[in-house]
Amino acid sequence: MQHRHLLSNEIDLLLDGEAGFGVAPLRAHVDDCAECLARLDEAQGVADALERLPHFAPHAGFADRVLSQVQIVEPWHVAALATARRVVPESRPLRVLAVAGAGVASVTISASAAWIALSTDLTMGSATVLTGRLRDVIMDAATQGLELLLGSAAADAVRANGTMAVTAAGVALLASVGVAAFGFRSLASASRQRGS
Ligand SMILES: [Zn+2]
Fold first, then answer.
1. How does pLDDT run across 84-98, given as a tens digit for each residue?
2. Centroid of ligand 1 to alpha carbon of 16 (angstroms)
3. How far is the CA of 47 from the centre of ligand 1 (A)?
4. What are the domain boundaries of the chain?
5. Domain 1-73 sits in which CATH superfamily?
6. How far is the CA of 50 from the centre of ligand 1 (A)?
7. What is the CA(25)–ligand 1 centre distance, in A?
8. What digits encode the pLDDT tens for the residues 150-190?
9. Ligand 1 center to residue 13 CA distance, Å?
10. How far, CA to CA in Å, does 116 sit from each of 5, 14, 193?
């Protein structure tokens, strides 16, 4: 027998009909202690009364109605992803066209920046060593790329011409025409599949 009265959680264990290790001494104490037996009976009465209450269930859509009024703070990356999903088209051909458009835009911006840098350098002479070096690096990369694409004659022509904007515009045009053609072809084949 336990040498102290039961705690509330120990009475709960007896109420729940728990049969685990340690419950037997509690039961033995209740059998010998009028005070703890009375508390157990009272708790049993409350539990029975609660059990007899009608069981309510919320109306259908209750949770949705509550949540519609809850302000949920979205993390920025979740919001950005959702926005990107809305912007990116659903179908594959349209996606290819979107990528082509983005590519043309980025190449155009790069070419414009290179052109501005080059013309600034030309008007100011070799005022800044940094601009000159940057231009050399860009020119080398562009001519090497062109050499790979069109052969050394074109690269020599560009090197002699020395016009960065022409190179960039040419590469941009080639790339955008290729990707756009692929996009339109996918679009056409997709609509054919839908038609058949
Ligand atoms: Zn007791």
1. 888 777 778 888 888
2. 18
3. 20
4. 1-73, 89-195
5. Anti-sigma factor, zinc-finger domain (1.10.10.1320)
6. 25
7. 11
8. 676 666 665 666 566 666 667 777 887 787 777 777 767 76
9. 15
10. 89, 85, 46
What percent of the chain stands above pLDDT 70?
73
- Give 29 Cα–ligand 1 centroid separation in angstroms: 6
Contacting residues for 180 by C-beta, under 8 A, at least 6 apart:
97, 100
Dihedral through CA 14, CA 17, CA 22, CA 27, nearest 10?
Answer: 50
Long-range contacts of 115-121 (CB under 8 A, 24+ apart): 115/164, 115/165, 115/168, 118/164, 118/165
113 token code pair: 């920046």
- Rounded distance from Cα 33 to ligand 1 centre (Å): 5
The Å distance, Cα 14 to ligand 1 centre, comes to 13
